[in-house]
Amino acid sequence: MPRSALHVSPKKLVESPAPALVCGPYHTQSSALHDLEFTGDLQPWPGFLDAVHTTHQNHTWRNEVLGLTLHTRDPYTYGNVEVGDEHGVQGRFHKYFGDVLNTIFTSQSKRIRFANFKCEQSTSTGKPDVILKDDSHVLKVVGELKVPWVREHFLADKLDDVDELRSILAQPINYMQMLDCVYGFLSNYEETIFMRQLVDSQGNWRVEYSPVVQRSTAYDRSATNPPVVSARQCFFYIGCDALNQGRAHNTTPRWVVQI
After folding, report:
1. Whole-number Å distance between alpha carbons of 191 and 214
2. Domain for residue 194, yes or no?
3. Helix (H) or strand (E) holding 223
4. What is the 3-state secondary structure (H, E, C) of 69-102?
5. Per the domain annotation, does 10 fall within a domain?
6. Three-state SS string across 142-171, please?
7. Among 18, 80, 158, 213, fewest CB within 10 Å belongs to which?
8. Better-predicted residue by pLDDT, 7 or 257
């Protein structure tokens, strides 16, 4: 007798949380933060969650089936592989965010996709862990990944300490400047901070950072103040908006420095 299954639409998929990581009993324990500090203007990103929510609500979602959810445990939906280092976390991130979002982008005719940095022709010395590029192979978003179980990689508690925030965000901000990307992010899979760099009328650049978004959060359409959105919705918003952005061309000297 065939098993019954529920159809999964793009809208339902983007609203859903990502599966939890399965951490092995033995794993790397050292910090992977670089000895860098961001010296520029750093500010909270005003209205980030509202912008994600509005984009989601205003988008005309195509009602097609992107997957099936079995009533029994689905071996392709949940995390089964134990991870113990950053390489393992990268694999899970690409599966549950990159693969999923690429399928959603394609279904909505958004000409952007997740990829490895080696897929780009670049002579840059900086090599971000994750990128988003458009169909013309123009780099649009850069991302850095860390393991979630090392305390130095926790993100939520850094929002209350500007010095720690300048340190932990320095590496992805450095990639954003070097590679002329308006958008970037830092993620330990469990938590993600999104960033954008902006220039004012005087030619001064700044970086704005989002609230920490948890991978376990599902979209709550009844919550509006503030909105409760999934990490996948945030990536969809960033990817769609990045398509409309050109190169940053930020030449601010010593924006990120070695410490």
Report:
1. 5
2. yes
3. strand 220-224
4. EECCCCCCCCCCCEECCHHHHHHHHHHHHHHHHH
5. no
6. EEEECCCCCHHHCCHHHHHCHHHHHHHCHH
7. 80
8. 257
126 domain-assigned:
yes
Asked if residue 181 lies in contact with residue 175, where contact means CB atoms within 8 angstroms, the answer is yes
* 178-210 per-position pLDDT tens digit: 999 999 999 999 999 999 999 999 999 999 999
* CB atoms inside a 10 Å sphere around CB 158: 22
Mean pLDDT of 245-249: 95
The residue type at 2: P
What is the band of 1 on the pLDDT scale with cuts at 50, 70, 90?
A: very low
Q: In DSSP terms, which residues pair with 44 in a beta bridge?
A: 209
pTM across the whole model: 0.93
Provide the CB-side half-sphere exposure for 231 (13 A, CA): 25
Mean pLDDT value across residues 109-134: 90
Which domain does 186 fall in, by range?
34-63+111-258
How many domains does the structure of the chain reveal? 1
**β-pairing, 41-44 with 205-209?**
parallel
- Which residue is listed with tokens 């990829």? 115
In a domain, 100, yes or no: no
Residue 186 and residue 38 in contact, taking contact as beta carbons nearer than 8 Å? no
Over residues 28-57, the mean pLDDT reads 97
CB 204 within 8 A of CB 70: no
